[in-house]
Amino acid sequence: MSQPDTQHHLSTWKGVCSEQDLVSNSGVVVWLDGAQVALFYLPGAQEQTLFAIDNHDPESGANVIGRGLIGSIKGDLVVAAPIYKQHYRLQDGQCLESPHQRLQVWPVRLNEGVVELAVS
């Protein structure tokens, strides 16, 4: 179930929760060095099944991305921000409606039942 660590071999990995804390096809929020990170676990996704994206919605100013609905637009997995409904790609954090907006994303993996985020 672990994802290969090919791109981030120089990163330090930090455990943020257990695999049991994840909710299929939904978001949970964890703390990482003072930041709120929304984790989305999509077991039916083709390539990547776990995503880590900033929980802070720049449009509303609220920490609500982890409560957003998951979907697909033109083949991209997205989360819809709960308040104003902007769509952010899970892969890179890009807002589809406002190209100047992008949420931070973190490399994420499952390692022996622990969800880990890459930190620099």
Automatic annotation (TrEMBL):
Record key words, sorted: Nitrate assimilation, Oxidoreductase
Family annotation (PROSITE patterns): NIRD (PS51300)
Rieske-like [2Fe-2S] domain location: 12-117
Entry coiled-coil feature ranges: none
This protein's record includes keyword Oxidoreductase: yes
Keyword Iron-sulfur assigned: no
Pfam families for this protein: Rieske_2
Protein name: Nitrite reductase small subunit NirD
Organism: Pseudomonas sivasensis
